[in-house]
Design brief:
It is built from five helices and six strands, in the order H-E-E-H-H-H-E-H-E-E-E. The protein is α+β, with helices and mostly antiparallel strands.
């Protein structure tokens, strides 16, 4: 948005006036023959406290490994810290984290997403795949991403 928050507000007002709604990010993962759905900012899952606790642990490890959140992707006029918090609530991160705490170590994780994975989540999941030593397969609207050992099969071009 490059500081054009007034323009952003106007566009959002026009969208609301025309009943245009942005589709929320949604991700699914199957664990023990049950599909678990996560929406961006989800607080409704029965294991949400454990998911966010594990995310905090992973975040520290990612930071130590060199990960820096790209808050330029957050198109809201909020403080930097809140932008980082918004990124942490993306549905694919919640699904990945739930998969990590709900399946045996080394088990590949398979996630489906209704939108294109954002750049920052793509980078974060590469870090996670290396830290936890797991293959993470994510299907977004453009392709399959196979994350393994800190790299993605798309070669960071998607």
């Amino acid at each position: 948005a490059a500081g054009r928050w007034d323009d952003v507000r106007k566009i959002r007002q026009q969208m609301a006036g025309r009943s245009v709604k942005k589709e929320p990010g949604c991700s699914w993962i199957e664990v023990d023959n049950k599909v678990h759905e996560f929406i961006v900012g989800d607080q409704s899952h029965t294991h949400i406290e454990e998911i966010y606790a594990e995310w905090e642990r992973l975040s520290l490890q990612m930071e130590q490994a060199g990960y820096l959140p790209d808050t330029n992707l957050v198109l809201h006029d909020v403080e930097e810290e809140q932008k980082e918090q918004l990124l942490c609530q993306h549905s694919e991160r919640l699904a990945v984290t739930f998969g990590i705490i709900s399946t045996p170590c080394g088990t590949p994780l398979h996630i489906t997403k209704n939108l294109r994975v954002c750049d920052d989540c793509h980078i974060a999941i590469k870090f996670i795949s290396k830290i936890v030593g797991r293959e993470i397969v994510m299907r977004d609207t453009h392709r399959f991403h196979h994350f393994k050992y800190g790299a993605c099969s798309c070669g960071d071009y998607w």
